[in-house]
Amino acid sequence: MNYIGCFFKIDKASLEMQTAIDILIAELGQVGFESFTENPDGVEAYIKKNDWNASLLDDVQILQSEEVTFSYDVKEIEQVNWNQEWENNFEPIVVDDQVSIRAPFHKNPGLAYDIVIEPKMSFGTGHHETTHLMIQHLLDLDLQNKKVLDMGCGTGILAIFAEMKGAGPIDAIDIDNWCYENSLENVERNNCSAISVFEGDSSLLKSDSYDVIIANINRNILLQDMAIYADSLKENGILLLSGFYTEDIEKINESATSNGLKQEKKLVRNNWVGLKYVNL
After folding, report:
1. CATH class of 3-80
2. pTM of the model
3. Are the beta carbons of 77 and 4 closer than 8 angstroms?
């Protein structure tokens, strides 16, 4: 299958260039782009030709930002070895000197938690600010024997970390088939036994009740599904949300509060936010 490549160049920016690149990559990932290569001037981003239409870029907020100006070219690309591309660009991640996130070809740094993720095209390698924020939240929680949902699981990284912290049973759900398949692979790679992976969306949540729900998705989906998350939480259950900016907090809070949730903690990283709520 051929791919479409979008080649973005930062022409000018009032914010730090790496921050602009990180935001662009995260937002492109949310609209379906699958692989990225950073360069000194910007980012190369790739999406399956069958999934591409030019209107996708209308939903990438940073392209309309006054803080940064991008120019870009769009070209059709013949299929290449995408896994090799990721291997060439994937670097290990460390979160709070406690959690390492690495590929199988990286050396184990010997931290308290070591997560091995095959660097394919799924969202959630730890490089994105939102994954980092969610891991920080999970570090602070007692997850022993807690029933957990990882909604929009991507690579399965957050579900895997939850099991490492003693959670179980754990459900991991993603609507994207590639993410579903990659999560299955990574669950096996990390010798997890408490995680069940499902392909689908929030309609799969029927009568289940969780101690902790993790939802690292874009703002619109979070707002759409907030009532479902609240209904799926046990009393005093915890909801962790990320995938949005500081300017989105007010809308997220309004929706969460109207569904009986109380904000307890906020983490911010380069304008991305991770919020913790409790079901009262």
Report:
1. alpha beta
2. 0.72
3. yes
